[in-house]
Amino acid sequence: MIDDAWLDLEIDRPAPPEPTRPRAQAPWLALLLGLFTTAAIVLAGWAAMSLLGDGARALFTDPTSIPTASTIASAPDPIPVSTAASTPAPTASPTTTSTVPTVDESLWASALAEAEAAAAAVAGEVAAASQAWEGGEAGFVTTRSRFVAAADAATTARSALAGALVPAGTDQTLVAALLEAFDELTVAAADTVAGLDAPDDGTLRRAAVDRTADVTAEIERLVEELREDLR
């Protein structure tokens, strides 16, 4: 509505709405929310306790189980546990003796074998030469030459024995006796050659042959004893 000459307007403003009151929540909803929250807290605590060890759970369930300085000081010393009965006694490993001969033993055994073979060859050739001489066979000269060669081989075997390194523990008395026997064999072989060549009734030859046979038998006996001593 216009009242004056200029402009007089009267505007009808709308009335403000009336404030609405909040609806009152039902009491059972709040109770339900509280029960749910309590259950969640209980479940979370149970899960945390299950993850802890026995000692940690004891700290929460029984605080009196926590050791103090006084309880630690008054605790008795632990009883030492003897392990003598449970620990097996060390078993001594059986000692094995080596049966592999050393270099010295091998060389000495080889020298003994050569000496024994040389003495046996002399004994065989002197017997063959004596039989040839007794029978007057035409091959006596050849038989005599074989005997001389066997006697020379025996001298070489004696030199090998004298130069061989005797192993420790060998009976030196037997070694000396064997070398002396070979010296006697050299003399007996020379007498045998002289007896084979002597123009007599064979007395000198027979004596030399018998002496050679005795010396070769003695050599074989000494070699066997030294071989047993080596074993």
Question: Can you characterise this structure?
Answer:
- The protein is mostly helical and 231 residues long.
- About 2% of the residues have low confidence.
- The longest helix is centred in the middle third of the chain and has 33 residues.
- The protein starts with 26 loop residues before the first helix and ends with a helix.
- The chain is rod-shaped and about 185 Å long.
- Helices cover 65% and strands 0% of the residues.
Which features would summarize this protein structure in a list?
231 residues; mainly alpha
User: How is the main sheet built?
Assistant: none
Distance between the termini: 155 Å
SSE topology string: HHHHHHH
Helix/strand structural class: mainly alpha
Helix fraction bin = 55-70%
- The overall average pLDDT, rounded, is 74
The 3D shape can be described as: rod-shaped
Report the portion of residues in β strands: under 5%
Strand and helix layout:
Layout: H1 27-51, H2 54-61, H3 69-74, H4 103-135, H5 140-163, H6 172-197, H7 203-230
